[in-house]
Amino acid sequence: MEKKTSCVMCGNEHLHLQESEKLVEIDGAEVKIPFRKHWCEECGSEMALNEDLRFNARAMRHARKKHRGMLTGEEIRQIRKQLRLNQEQAAKLFGGGPVAFSKYENEEVSQSDAMDRLIWIVGMIPGLAQLLAKRLKIDLAMEAEVTLEKTATEFKEEYVTQARVAMEATSSYFRGFSAFSTASNEEIYKPDEKAGAVEGVAA
Ligand SMILES: [Zn+2]
User: In this structure, is residue 194 part of a structural domain?
Assistant: First the structure.
């Protein structure tokens, strides 16, 4: 997991994580969110590693959901567990594609308004999950086993494809640049990200 990354300015490998907070604007309000970057022991340069960018983007998404009164990733996870559903079952029941819940729960995407309200209402009235399952002809108890087997096979194929695509993208990215870029941090804090445009995460 720990990857050797060197300073973009001097090449030194002793980079230190610095955790702080950042004031960002969400819908006209100032909100404080956790913020990460790294600094170089040798030359003092500050830089955002890819892992920092991912962390910061998640923190921003979390703050947006909270500020807009939407369910956070953690709240969605809690509701799903209350309903005794795994992520695949939840996706079958609520829609959004097989990896939707993993993405919602890890703050990798924001759920749509409609999805947010659906999950919330079923969380408030858990019996609705059974009703929904009946309508969709999903046997939640039996489904678990089938899903597990099916997912194992599908996952292998999908994983190989995804891994190949990711490797190609990464190698071409790293050919020109180092493992970090400060510029993309600006993207994260642009005030106009629309919540929940990502129903099609499933691929
Ligand atoms: Zn340096």
Answer: no
